[in-house]
Specification:
The complex is a heterotrimer of chains A (108), B (424) and C (85).
Chain A (H helix, E strand, L loop, with lengths): L4 E5 L3 E2 L4 E9 L20 E8 L2 E7 L9 E7 L4 E9 L4 E10 L1
Parallel strand pairs in A: 2-8
Antiparallel strand pairs in A: 1-3, 3-6, 4-5, 4-7, 7-8
Chain B lengths: L1 H13 L1 H6 L11 E5 L3 H13 L3 E5 L5 E2 L4 H5 L9 E2 L2 H6 L3 E3 L3 E5 L4 E4 L4 E3 L2 E4 L3 E3 L23 H12 L5 E6 L9 H16 L4 E6 L7 H11 L4 E4 L1 H4 L2 E5 L4 E4 L3 E3 L2 E4 L3 E3 L1 H5 L9 E2 L13 E3 L4 E2 L7 H20 L8 E3 L2 E5 L2 E12 L2 E9 L6 H23 L4
Parallel strand pairs in B: 1-2, 1-9, 2-5, 9-20, 11-12, 11-17, 12-13, 19-21
Antiparallel strand pairs in B: 3-4, 6-7, 7-8, 10-18, 14-15, 15-16, 22-24, 23-24, 24-25
Helix pairs in contact in B: 3-11, 7-8
Chain C lengths: L6 H9 L20 H13 L5 H9 L2 H13 L8
The chains are: A mainly beta (108), B alpha/beta (424), C mainly alpha (85).
The complex binds flavin-adenine dinucleotide (FAD).
The site of flavin-adenine dinucleotide has 37 residues of chain B, from helix 3, helix 4 and helix 11.
InterPro entries (chain B): FAD/NAD-bd_sf, FAD/NAD-binding_dom, FAD/NAD-linked_Rdtase_dimer_sf, FCSD_central, FlavoCytC_S_DH_flav-bd, FlavoCytC_S_DH_flav-bd_sf, SQRD
Pfam families (chain B): FCSD-flav_bind, FCSD_central, Pyr_redox_2
GO molecular function, one term (chain B): flavin adenine dinucleotide binding
């Protein structure tokens, strides 16, 4: 079993009210749920089914993901800078596993 | 015989002025003359098939005395093949396949007088010229990446000293280092090869440097065989290989040779070993001869492989564009045969039958796990069009994959005998 | 391969990209000592099914009956024995 690698690309600092881009990607071992193992049993589906971004304590972006998106889903979205604080990124995988990453953003 | 003699007279009549302009070009024989520039996969195949017919005077111009195949060079990087086992000379071609080899660089072509100039100043006259000069790298797409940077951050996209350099760096890398592969934009030589390289280097790391990582920074958002590769990476090398698409990084813009780091739009990645595979275009002599269009590649007729820009000059191999064929040794070899029979038809009056173009590549995921594809092509509307594609599937049994890896080794020896001559 | 530009020879050139001309090799079976009818039969089997080799399935699908006949005749007429050592 391997630990998925989440990554985000966020500017280190932005000016107040600026709209800035965030890119997020995660590499994990995807299972489509359509394959069978050597004994003929269906291998359970394991995809990233959801993604959430929090800015401080506020949820600012959410995506529900489905089959046929990509093995390693890539997301790009925009936020408006309000104040310095913590951005938190959370990926949800089938089976209940959660992977997260956080990033301090400085608003000038 | 009579047939080509008649054609020959026509071409001589048309070439009177040309002959006057190049008085010291000797015409020693009365067989039609074919000159081939580049003795790699494409050039050696054309020359060998023309030489075997014995009806033409065939001269192959190749700078190097020894050719090292790019295919299987990823196995060398992983310590699974010696470089010597991937190296071929031209002796068998000259001794058994009726052609002459000159080890010189071709420095210029004059399509008007139908002559090729070599580095030492000698000029050779041709009735037909074939250019099979492989690839060159586009400069300026990645800032600071030039020939001297390649001595520190190798591309290893031509096999030989570059492969040896990369192998040495991988061997001396400390466990826990990051091996960065910068993968090029389309179109480029051998679409699955950067990812095969990642797979086989991972195999080497897994045995000797298990804490090391491989990071692929791609100029593309998708790649050839992606599903097969990503499934195998999870199975063989869990957590070791990370692939970042262009849409995430914005692609590599700059290399910092001194710091051994690469810079994308938003981030700097530090490498223990960096393999930079730059964007590509047709080999330099093709560009100089004005065989290339704005894309940097050579448009050709899909039946004869004659350039659509310069009459009497044919181009085969990685240098061409204008269709669905991937840039591979197999495609190149298939084009070269069609080209050889087309040249024979026009110079000696033999018949050219409808050509069949094929590609079939073996790609290693691990030494005993390989996949393959088989694609058929046909000329259609001035382009090369795919007819059918078959490719290995995710989830095939280990036994099937082992058999494919075994076949790959058989293919290598048969294929190189076809190109460099039987008995090589 | 025999050095001529006949129809059979032009198609057989494609075979030589994978099949060792000297009849060596076992991973990819040699085709230098088969008779005409055997080659035709093999090609028909490959055309009918992808299961044994998708490379040969692709090749067989791309050739007409006439082409299969021409290449089979050429290969059978050029049966080769291994070069003496
Ligand atoms: C890592 C890697 C793995 C690969 N794996 C596979 C694989 O598994 N299967 C496959 O089918 N393909 C594979 N390929 C692709 C294959 O190597 C190329 O497609 C093939 O070599 C193209 O042949 P070519 O004749 O166009 O060019 P080349 O083989 O590069 O030959 C060009 C030759 O021309 C010579 N030359 C150039 N200019 C001049 C001049 N002015 N005067 C004299 N000589 C000149 C050069 O010295 C060179 O020898 C791989 C490539 C790489 C990089």
């Amino acid at each position: 079993m391997t630990t998925p690698v989440p990554r985000v690309m966020v500017p280190g600092s932005v000016s107040r009210h600026e709209v800035f881009p965030i890119k997020a990607i995660i590499q994990h071992e995807m299972e489509t749920g359509l394959r069978t193992d050597s004994t003929g049993q269906v291998i359970p589906r394991k995809i990233i089914n959801g993604f959430v971004c929090r800015y401080g304590s506020v949820e600012v972006f959410r995506a529900d993901l489905h089959e046929a998106v990509a093995a390693n889903p890539f997301l790009e979205f925009y936020l408006r800078a309000t104040e310095s604080g913590r951005l938190e990124f959370i990926w949800q995988e089938d089976g209940g596993a959660i992977y997260s990453l956080s990033h301090e953003i400085v608003v000038t | 015989m009579t047939n080509w003699t008649r054609r020959q007279i026509c071409s001589m009549a048309g070439g009177v002025l040309a002959a006057a302009a190049a008085p010291h070009v000797a015409r020693s024989q009365n067989k039609p003359r074919v000159v081939v520039i580049g003795g790699g996969i494409g050039g050696a195949t054309v020359a060998r098939y023309l030489g075997d017919l014995k009806t033409m005077d065939v001269t192959l111009i190749e700078t190097k005395r020894r050719y090292v195949t790019c295919f299987f060079s990823n196995l060398y990087l992983a310590g699974l093949r010696s470089l010597a086992s991937l190296t071929f000379g031209f002796e068998v071609l000259t001794e058994r396949h009726g052609l002459k080899v000159i080890h010189q660089a071709a420095t210029g072509v004059d399509p008007g007088t139908k002559t090729v100039t070599l580095r030492d100043g000698v000029r050779l006259a041709y009735d037909r010229l074939v250019v099979a000069a492989g690839i060159a790298f586009k400069s300026g797409e990645i800032r600071n990446y030039d020939a001297s940077a390649a001595e520190i951050m190798p591309h290893a996209w031509n096999a030989g000293p570059q492969s040896e350099l990369l192998r040495r760096q991988l061997e001396s890398m400390e466990d826990g280092g990051v091996f960065v592969i910068v993968a090029p934009p389309d179109p480029f030589r051998c679409p699955p090869a950067p990812y095969e390289r990642a797979s086989l280097v991972a195999y080497y790391f897994k045995q000797f440097k298990p804490r090391s990582k491989i990071l692929i920074l791609d100029a593309k958002d998708r790649f050839s065989g992606q599903e097969l590769f990503q499934e195998a990476w999870g199975r063989h090398y869990p957590g070791m290989i990370e692939w970042l698409p262009r849409q995430f990084t914005g692609a590599v813009k700059i290399v910092d040779v001194a710091a051994r780091s690469v810079v994308t739009e938003g981030e700097t990645f530090k490498a223990a070993v960096a393999n930079i595979i730059p964007a590509q275009k047709a080999g330099a002599i093709a560009e100089k001869t004005e065989l290339t269009d704005a894309s940097g590649w050579c448009p050709v007729d899909p039946v004869t492989f004659e350039s659509t820009l310069q009459r009497g000059i044919h181009v085969v191999g990685d240098s061409i564009i204008g269709g669905d064929m991937p840039k591979s040794a197999f495609s190149t070899n298939s084009q070269a045969k069609a080209c050889a029979f087309a040249i024979a038809a026009s110079l000696t009056g033999s018949q050219q039958f409808p050509s069949h173009l094929f590609n079939s590549c073996y790609t290693f995921l691990a030494p005993d796990d390989a996949f393959t594809n088989a694609i058929t092509f046909t000329p259609e509307g001035g382009k090369i069009k795919t007819v059918e594609t078959f490719i290995s599937k995710v989830g095939e049994s280990a036994e099937v994959r082992r058999r494919t890896a075994h076949q790959a080794v058989g293919w290598y020896s048969a294929f190189t005998a076809d190109v460099f001559g039987e008995g090589s | 391969m025999a050095a001529d530009a006949s129809h059979g020879a032009q198609i057989a050139a494609a075979c030589a990209s994978c099949h060792d001309p000297s009849g060596r090799g076992h991973a990819i079976p040699p085709i230098t000592s088969l008779d005409e009818q055997t080659i035709i039969k093999f090609m028909h089997n490959y055309r009918a099914s992808e299961s044994s080799s998708h490379v040969m399935h692709a090749v067989a699908l791309s050739l007409s009956e006439e082409e299969i006949g021409a290449v089979a005749r050429h290969l059978a007429a050029n049966v080769r024995h291994r070069d003496p050592p």
